[in-house]
């Protein structure tokens, strides 16, 4: 039975990856930060009964308290598990927040990666353990080439992107210096019903669901013109696994090869709730109007603009399709939006039922 360690296991990607690996017959270990509040919601689907939350010894799923910024802790955990595969998904991954917390972002996204690589090296696990580093399309930032592929020059436009560049290059450096199987998956935007509610896609689908059910008046957003290559996170974790099963360590772009605007994401989201959007005005004065009622339900708020904007990101998945036989469009953009809206409509309905129980 293979052993895998996932950092960031309570996140969107971590929860999907844990499920995927358990289905493959892995013994899965997850790194989780200690918190005074419950932060394991996304793992609920993995737990088969009430006692499973305490992770019974005979389970193939185990949680370990730790933090990638703590080198001693990381080294101890890796030394105890001796994993065949490590998926480093831990990150401060919110681009806008990285401008407010640049130092913390660097510690987690940059130094955290180094701590894992160095732990594997000093523990003498370089021949045994394969390492996947979650890289990002934000490396490309102010794009130098369209579409972006593995050879496209980097030009990050946020502290998050800059921190991730360190993670990318230190992974490549350890691969070349110590003959480690350490690779980067350069993931373009990938979303799901498990996405954090502060990320723009989930903010849109949840906002659309609440507006449709009369629980919210307006949805306020930043740059509607931003273009992104959006895929389904559940599909992308399969590609992470395929990268580590490849016969040699290589870096891969993980993307759909299609690009859509934030505006289009908004329109499709409301369409799936039965609302048709009409646009009026331009720039910061642009508004989205409910065609049936004439009500303004979408507004642009300058506070959501980034200090340095990334206008467009479009990945070229040709290498992953060719060498890994991965299908980047298994879930279409339209289906992704539908899945997210459907789940958020259910979430809002459930919240309302619970509220009425206590009223």
Describe this entry's structure for a reader.
One of its GO terms (molecular function) is GDP-mannose 4,6-dehydratase activity. InterPro entries: GDP_Man_deHydtase, NAD(P)-bd_dom, NAD(P)-bd_dom_sf. The protein has 359 residues and is of the alpha/beta class. The protein folds into two domains: 3-187, Rossmann fold (3-Layer(aba) Sandwich), CATH 3.40.50; 200-228 and 260-312 and 330-350, UDP-galactose 4-epimerase, domain 1, CATH 3.90.25. Helices cover 39% and strands 17% of the residues. It has ten helices and 15 strands. It has helices at residues 12-23, 71-81, 95-100, 102-122, 159-178, 200-212, 233-245, 262-271, 318-324, 333-358, and strands spanning 3-7, 27-32, 61-65, 85-88, 130-136, 182-187, 190-191, 219-221, 227-228, 231-232, 252-254, 260-261, 277-280, 287-290, 296-300. The protein has a seven-stranded parallel sheet with strand order 3-2-1-4-5-6-11, with helices on both faces. A hairpin with a 6-residue loop joins strand 13 and strand 14 (287-290). The chain is globular and about 65 Å long. The protein starts with a strand and ends with a helix.
């Amino acid at each position: 039975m293979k052993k895998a360690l996932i950092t960031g296991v309570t996140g969107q990607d971590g929860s999907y990856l844990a499920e995927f690996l358990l289905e493959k017959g892995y013994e899965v270990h997850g790194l989780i930060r200690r918190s005074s509040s419950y932060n394991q919601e996304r793992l609920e689907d993995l737990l088969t009964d009430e006692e499973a939350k305490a992770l019974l010894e005979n389970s193939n799923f185990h949680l370990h308290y730790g933090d990638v910024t703590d080198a001693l802790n990381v080294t101890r955990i890796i030394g105890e598990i001796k994993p065949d595969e490590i998926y480093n998904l831990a990150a401060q991954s919110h681009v806008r927040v990285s401008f407010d917390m640049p130092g913390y972002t660097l510690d987690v996204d940059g130094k955290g990666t180094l701590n894992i690589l160095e732990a594997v090296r000093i523990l003498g696990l370089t021949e045994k353990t394969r390492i996947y580093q979650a890289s990002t399309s934000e490396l490309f930032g102010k794009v130098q080439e369209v579409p972006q592929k593995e050879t496209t020059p980097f030009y990050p436009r946020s502290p998050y992107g800059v921190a991730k560049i360190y993670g990318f290059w230190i992974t490549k450096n350890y691969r070349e210096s110590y003959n480690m199987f350490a690779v980067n998956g350069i993931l373009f935007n990938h979303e799901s019903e498990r996405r954090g509610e502060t990320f723009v896609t989930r903010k849109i689908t949840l906002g659309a669901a609440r507006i449709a059910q009369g629980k919210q008046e307006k949805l306020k957003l930043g740059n509607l013109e931003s273009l992104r290559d959006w895929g389904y996170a559940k599909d992308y974790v399969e590609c992470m696994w395929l990268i580590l099963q490849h016969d040699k360590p290589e870096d891969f772009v993980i993307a759909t090869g299609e690009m859509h605007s934030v505006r289009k994401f908004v329109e499709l989201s409301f369409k799936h709730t039965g609302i048709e959007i009409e646009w009026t005005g331009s720039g910061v004065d642009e508004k989205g109007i409910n065609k049936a009622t004439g009500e303004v339900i979408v507004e642009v708020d300058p506070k959501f603009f980034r200090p340095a904007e990334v206008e467009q990101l479009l990945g070229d998945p040709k290498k992953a399709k060719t060498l890994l036989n991965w299908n980047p469009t298994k879930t279409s953009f339209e289906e992704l939006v539908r899945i997210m809206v459907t789940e958020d409509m259910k979430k809002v309905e459930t919240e309302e039922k619970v509220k009425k129980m206590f009223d």
